[in-house]
Amino acid sequence: MSQVASYLYVIAPIKGSPAEKAGIKAGDVIEYIEAKATRDISLYDARQLLLGEAGSKVKLGVLRAGECPQTLEVVR
Questions:
Q1: What is the DSSP secondary structure assignment for residue 76, as one 8-state letter?
Q2: Which uninterrupted H or E stretch holds 11?
Q3: DSSP one-letter string for 18-60
Q4: Chain segment 27-42, per-residue pLDDT in tens
Q5: Dihedral sign from CA coordinates of 45, 1, 33, 5
Q6: What phi, psi does 7 have (nearest 5°)?
Q7: In the predicted model, what is the mean pLDDT of the chain?
Q8: Are 32 and 41 in contact (CB under 8 A)?
Q9: pTM above 0.70, yes or no
């Protein structure tokens, strides 16, 4: 993950990772994690929001070029 224009930007999901299984793709912009907006959030804080107990779920608001905004649920 990186930051572009103050938003979280997916460089490439790790092969076989929960993010890839949930449908996260390279180039996606993560607009929010759960109910927390990610604009101007540090990568450290974003990581803290994404961490959790194995098997628990986290909702991500995703912006993808040419598509409507969507919410994806990632099982950790």
A1: -
A2: none
A3: HHHHHT--TT-EEEEETTEE-TT--HHHHHHHH---TT-EEEE
A4: 999 999 998 999 989 9
A5: positive
A6: -110, 160
A7: 92
A8: no
A9: yes
Closest residue by Cα to residue 9 from 37, 35, 43, 34: 43
Please report, in angstroms and rounded to a whole number, the separation of the first and last CA atoms in the chain. 16
| Region at 6 (left for phi over 0; alpha for psi -120 to 50; beta for the rest) | left
All residues at 6 or more sequence positions from 64 whose CB lies less than 8 Å from its CB, including other chains: 25, 27, 28, 29, 70
Query: Distances from the Cα of 75 to the Cαs of 3, 25, 36, 40, 55, in angstroms?
Result: 23, 16, 18, 25, 6
